[in-house]
Amino acid sequence: MEKIEFIKIDKKIEQVIGTSSFLARVKGQDKNVLKMLREEFEKDTTNYENAVAYTYFKWFLTNGKTDLGDTNFVYEVTFSNVEALNETLEEKPEYWILWILKYKIYSYMNFDENDFINSMEILIKQQNECEKMPYYLISEVLLAHFCYTKDNTKYAKEILERVMDNYTDKITILHAFFIGIVYEFRNIAKRSGDDDILELVESVLKKFF
User: Fold this and answer.
1) What mean pLDDT comes out for the span 51-70?
2) Where are the domains of the chain?
3) Which of 31, 85, 100, 103 would you call most buried, defined as having the most Cβ atoms within 10 angstroms of its Cβ?
């Protein structure tokens, strides 16, 4: 496994993602915005800020909708967005913030369960070889959530317990985006009535947010 030095998320990228979210809310129906972002992205698909702005804008356009029966969602977000993410990550695998978006999208798709788990575990191993950042725990929460939805509750619990043991600092950047990922897992746990998983997810929220 090739060692990757992930680029840390800074205030500039936090601002780019915040702007993408804002534009998706207020200009979501304006095709010129998407066209402009796509054109800037296509000028240089390795440009960090342009890749983040384009792919996150397309994600926020869904407003959290994950209905794979919606053909617009399938095409515009699931397929074309993953293509854009892959194009950039092939050349710039150090863009961690794009990996987390890619796997967030993948978690909704009908991918082979083992392939998804293996891919996420590789990402986590690569993270572990870098300077530890508090937000790296999000990839582990995402994996735990996926495993839980696939009825692999035992492994989901193990992952969450590992998160509680291995991380200490609170997440202070991209707070709203990252906490939203954990909230989604919490809501699933609440609906399922699984008190053990719910307690672990609540512990993650309390300790790191």
Assistant:
1) 77
2) 1-110, 120-209
3) 85
Q: What is the mean pLDDT of the chain?
A: 93
The span from the CA of 113 to the CA of 175, in Å, is 28
Closest to 52 in 3D by CA, of 104, 79, 89, 91: 89
Q: How far apart are CA 48 and CA 105, in angstroms?
A: 19
- The region, left, alpha or beta by phi > 0 then psi within -120 to 50, assigned to residue 47 is beta
For residue 89 the two structure tokens come to 């990550």
Tokens of 57: 């804008």
Measured CA to CA, the distance from residue 174 to residue 101 in angstroms comes to 13
Q: Mention every residue, 6+ apart, whose C-beta is less than 8 A from residue 115.
A: none
Interval 72-116: pLDDT, tens: 555 666 788 999 999 999 999 999 999 999 999 999 887 789 999
> What is the model's pLDDT at position 64?
53
For residues 29 and 208, the model is more confident at 208
Within 64-174, residue ranges assigned H as helices are: 71-72, 80-91, 96-106, 113-128, 137-149, 153-166
Q: Which two tokens stand for residue 156?
A: 């989901």
Largest CA distance in the chain: 50
The DSSP symbol for 170 reads P
Angle subtended by helix axes 175-192 and 195-208, to nearest 10? 160
Residue 23 Cα distances to 43, 58, 99, angstroms: 21, 10, 22
